[in-house]
Amino acid sequence: MRLLFQKLLNGVAIGSVYALFALGYTVVFSILRVINFAHGAIFTVGAYITYALTGAAFGKNGQLRNASLPLELNFWLALALGALGAGVLGVLVERLAFKPLRERGSDPLLTLVSSLGVAIATVNILQYLFGAENYSFGETLGSMRASVTLVGGELPVVIRTKQIVIFAVSMVMVVGLTLLINRTRTGKGLRAVAEDLTTARLLGIDTDRLIRLSFFISGVLGGIAGALIGLAGSFNHQFGVAIGLKGLAVIVLGGLGDIPGAVVGGLVIGVAEAFVPAEYNAYKDAVPFVVLLVVLLVRPSGLLGRAQVQKV
Amino acid sequence: MTAALEVDGLTRRFGGVTAVDGISFAVERGEVFGVIGPNGAGKTTLFNLVTGITPPTSGTLVHDGTDITTARPHQVARRGIARTFQNIRLFPELSALENVMIGRHCHTRSGIFSGVLGLGRAGAEEKAVRKRALELLALMGIAGRAEVKARNLPYGDQRRLEIARALALEPQLLLLDEPAAGMNPAEKTALADFMRRLRAEFDLTLLIIEHHVPLVMGLCDRIAVLDFGKMIALGDPETVRRDPAVVEAYLGEEG
Amino acid sequence: MLDFLNSQGTIYVSMVLGAVLGLSLYLPLLAGQLSLASPGFYALGGFVAAVMSTKTFEVKGSFPIHLVLVELVVAAVLCGALAFIVGLAALRLTGIYLALATIAFVEVLRVFTLNLELTGGAVGIFAIPQPFGTQLSYLWLAAPLLIIATLFTWRLEKVRAGRAFAAVREDELAAASMGVDTTRAKITAFVLGGVLAGLAGVIAAHQINTWSHRQASFDASIAYLAFVLIGGSRTFLGPVAGGLVLTYLPEWLREQAKHEFLPAWAAEFLRTGRFIIYGVLLAASCIFFPRGLITPELLRRIKRIGRGGSRPPEQKLRAEPEAVA
To answer: Which chains touch A (3 or more CB pairs under 8 A)?
Structure first.
């Protein structure tokens, strides 16, 4: 029973970050109906920026070996700025890889591949500059306890402070995003564009600006998620790709373009991974993909999504 | 004589909406049968039901004595039922010739390997298909555009191409969904003449959805009028024109 | 001279296999299916060769060619069967959903082979017997495969079956309404691609001498996608050229890195930055050359120049939106 509870806690903690990351996809998909494959790369860059801003040095390989910035920011400040940087990168990606194709009315698959190209280039530029090493954040908790024991005794149920922090930050961002979408004028604009881009434009809504904004938000979410996952363990130039693919499983499970769906999907996959028995640990990586396959074959619209109706 | 097409109690529901509601009629062989009604009356849905694109919620479809209620689109096509689409569905990147050649698909048999290796029948079949396709293009007056990509053709030629492709199927029953859309009055008259010739030359039964009421009145032997998924009238043009229900529902607006 | 050819032998064989793998993605694409599943079948084919040659056949010394042929047949059957199942399961999926499903398939297959004893687990299978003494000799297997695959695809597009694929790609609903069995078309195209990738895997396993789960990678999917999208997605020559050139590209870059005048950072970029270049090329290709570099129009123009004549260009009567396939 305790073991179950512990696993549940672990699953929810990591699941909340998956949800946060997946929301980045969702925001863009709900507006443009395309998957921004560069999201995983932006997420990685966010982690790297945060790392650099904390003044830490980059490793022994790569062009910028041993380099470090001449400042040493507190982790949270670095996180915030890193997220902003990621947001800006998101807008840049939109300008470069998405806008030209959108203006020509191209197939969404083409846009997807274009963003994939950007992702590959970005991730490998990171490797070129910073090497293939793993990086992790140093002491970020300060004087806080490393973990909290929820249930004592022989088999304690422990929650690490990092996990609480990660969960809290993720949930704050999710709530913030929901409030933005549902309670603000900007959010209304976003929803209008998501509903029907052409009509929104005809109604005088500045769709270009809102599209840029959605990519910015997507980048910010990704950047924060990147730093948080880096906080939980370590990160390198490749981890965005793996998480990127995982994130796809999350949004397909929850329903493409559905915000609550992304949250539900993230938590489900996080928990599912946590519940993989220890003997099958090697198969853990396959869990999101098995989920993805099953969902696509059984109910492509996902748990909360709406089925697409084809008009003849 | 067996009817070409028998529709019995055909119904199709989409969630809360009943697009087609208990429609029954029989189309006689060689007839020109019109289907008219206001927008959203269920006309195209009816065509989709007949051609197997949409499965009916209830009711039956019988073609030439055989039940085709659950038949899938390619099976319906193989039985000799061809159609054109309201919004033109050609194969945009393929040439006009290739578009028509695909209409010959179910009348040819060569598989992948016999085709690729050019064995036996395959070569001769290929030549025959090409020849027939060119003939049909010529019939529709667009032989000169044979190598042009379908998406580069002007609207009128695209409509003609769609008919050529449908004819390549060697259908007994041809369903035309708003064939006169986008045509001026002169073109519509020409179209009506053309339909009559088609019916005679190819021994066809025609089922036509049309908005332009005078065209339908002049051309069709019988007309079914749909409104909100239900059939509110069925009969020859004169009878239908005078039917009060029809006048109220539809003929009040100038078609 | 012979030494030089031999040291280059590996890359030539890889180029030829790259072209084959490009075609393995092109075939499902003919029927409108963007499938990233080829690495899965490639890996499976390689494992068939690896397992059979190390465990099933007891061979001392040089590995006989006829056994390689046996492996090719077995791989074709297995990959064909698996492709049939996957193709059937993924029938209702289109576009992005299909692409995602094939990505997931490859990853699941990879994790499977990672944990299976038969396939050597994390380490994989090594010391795979070699039928040839030199790398270049593998062209005796790879080149015929490429030639046959290319001729097959070329002919396929001209005949009934290929037209049916194209019709399904252009408008599945209309194709069905015209009598094309779209299910059969899609599955057939998918199986053809899977079998081709599997055959390439058999040859590669012997050539590279070791094989592991790492052969079923997402990176490989991207590479083959690049071959087709950059090379040309509208003609069979596109993936062939794409496969040949893009496989050679990293080699060529590495050679350029040896130039004396280059600063250290530039040389390093040329050596290790090939994926950066792939990525940029891929994105640029989507934006500037959506149909790839080799297009049917380009080929027509070349033919016309060859004939010395000139015909007026085809009349464009309306604006054209772009599509992937």
So the answer is: B, C
Looking at residue A141, what is its pLDDT? 61
Tokens 């609903």, located at residue:
C173
pLDDT > 70: what percent of chain C? Answer: 93
C-alpha A83: how far from chain center: 11
Distances (CA, A) of B245 to A240, B219, B234: 66, 22, 11
Domains of chain A: 2-298 (1.10.3470)
pTM, to two decimals: 0.90
Side-chain half-sphere exposure of A98, counting CA atoms within 13 A: 27
* Assembly ipTM: 0.91
Taking 50 as the pLDDT cut, the residues of chain B under it are: 254-255
Question: Do the chains contact at C112 and A105, CB–CB below 8 Å?
Answer: no
Question: A128 and C272: CB-CB below 8 Å?
Answer: yes
Average pLDDT over residues A231-243: 84
What would the mean pLDDT of A58-87 be, rounded to a whole number?
83
Q: For residue range C82-103, list pLDDT tens digits in order.
A: 999 999 999 989 888 999 999 9
pLDDT tens-digit map of A134-157: 888 876 666 666 777 776 677 777
pLDDT at C175: 97
- CB of B95 less than 8 A from some CB of C: no
Contacts of B54 in chain A (CB under 8 A): 312
Q: Is C251 helix (H, G, I), strand (E, B) or coil?
A: helix
The HSE-up count of residue A208 (CA atoms within 13 Å, CB side) is: 5
Best mutation site among C23, C30, C92, C163 for testing chain B: the one with the most B CBs within 10 Å?
A: C163
The Cα of C135 is separated from the nearest Cα of chain A by a number of Å equal to: 30
- Residue A134 has what pLDDT? 86
Contact A244, A36 (CB under 8 A): no
Q: Which residue is closest to A310 within chain C, CA to CA?
A: C173
Cβ–Cβ below 8 Å for B105 and C188:
no
A97 half-sphere exposure, CB direction, 13 A CA radius: 32
Nearest chain C residue to B79, by CA: C179
Q: How confident is the model over A190-214, as a mean pLDDT? A: 87
Residue type, C71: E
**CATH, range B1-80+171-255:** 3.40.50.300
Helix (H, G, I), strand (E, B) or coil at C125: strand
Domain residue limits, chain B = 1-80+171-255, 92-169
B93 vs C: CB within 8 A: yes
Instruction: Identify the residue among C23, C169, C178 best suited for mutation to test binding to B, counting B beta carbons within 10 A and taking the highest.
Output: C178
Q: Is the pLDDT of residue C322 over 60?
A: no
Which residues are CB-contacts of A29 (< 8 A; sequence separation ≥ 6)?
Answer: A35, A36, A251, A256, A257
pLDDT at C320: 45
Q: Which two tokens stand for residue C318?
A: 């309306």
Provide DSSP, A98-128: IHHHHHTT--HHHHHHHHHHHHHHHHHHHHH
pLDDT digits (tens, 9 = 90+) for B228-252: 899 999 999 999 888 888 888 765 5
Q: What is the structure's pLDDT at A307?
A: 62
Tell me what pLDDT residue A52 has. Answer: 87
pLDDT digits 0-9 by tens, A47-59: 999 888 887 777 7
